[in-house]
Amino acid sequence: MDFSTALRTERLVAIIRGRDPEASFRTVMALAEADIPLIEISLSGADALTVIRRARAELGDAAWLGAGTVLTGDDARRAAEAGANLIVTPGLGAGLEESVRQGLPTLAGVLTPSEVIAAEALGVSALKLFPASAGGPAYLRALRGPFPELPFVPVGGVDATVAQAYFDAGAVAVGVGSPLVGDAADGGDLDELRKRAAEFKAVCAR
């Protein structure tokens, strides 16, 4: 299925930003095994491109593997070369523009109405409301007033409880980092990660 369909179906993007590349790779695999198919590996994590490359080799061409914190055109190109088929940015800029130019699905970081308009004009796939904690579900509800049909994905401070509030406010999906991943990408307990994954899956399935 295409990215927009996968996003609306799964309603969860897992975000990995690890200090240990081997642990980050194991985290990707554990999330995939837990049936969380939309996984973003932040380029601000240690050796992120190698993690993406290894995960792509292991999971195959069909898996959704995103590169996050894409800031520059070079970031976008290197991420695509490593096997990323989804680009996630914290805001607007050269990285987003290059990703769109390459035809890659994009989750573009926005916060204000002006940024929403600019991102939509670029032809992005979905809008990453970031940092979502700056306004919470009430802000998303207000933002959807002038943009009722656009796909918003809140990211930043989203735990399992707040995730439901965002869905109630009209989010198509949520992006979740530490409340889901915890310390797994730094060498933490993968069994605990699997428990948290099950909790988020249950919320997203409601």
Automatic annotation (TrEMBL):
CDD domains: KDPG_aldolase (cd00452). The keyword Cytoplasm does not apply. PROSITE patterns: ALDOLASE_KDPG_KHG_2. The keyword Chaperone does not apply. Keywords: Carbohydrate metabolism, Lyase. Pathway: Carbohydrate acid metabolism. One of its GO terms (molecular function) is lyase activity. InterPro entries: Aldlse_KDPG_KHG (IPR000887), Aldolase_TIM (IPR013785), KDPG/KHG_AS_2 (IPR031338). Signal peptide: none annotated. Coiled coil: none annotated. Belongs to the KHG/KDPG aldolase family. Homotrimer. This is Aldolase. It comes from Streptomyces inhibens.
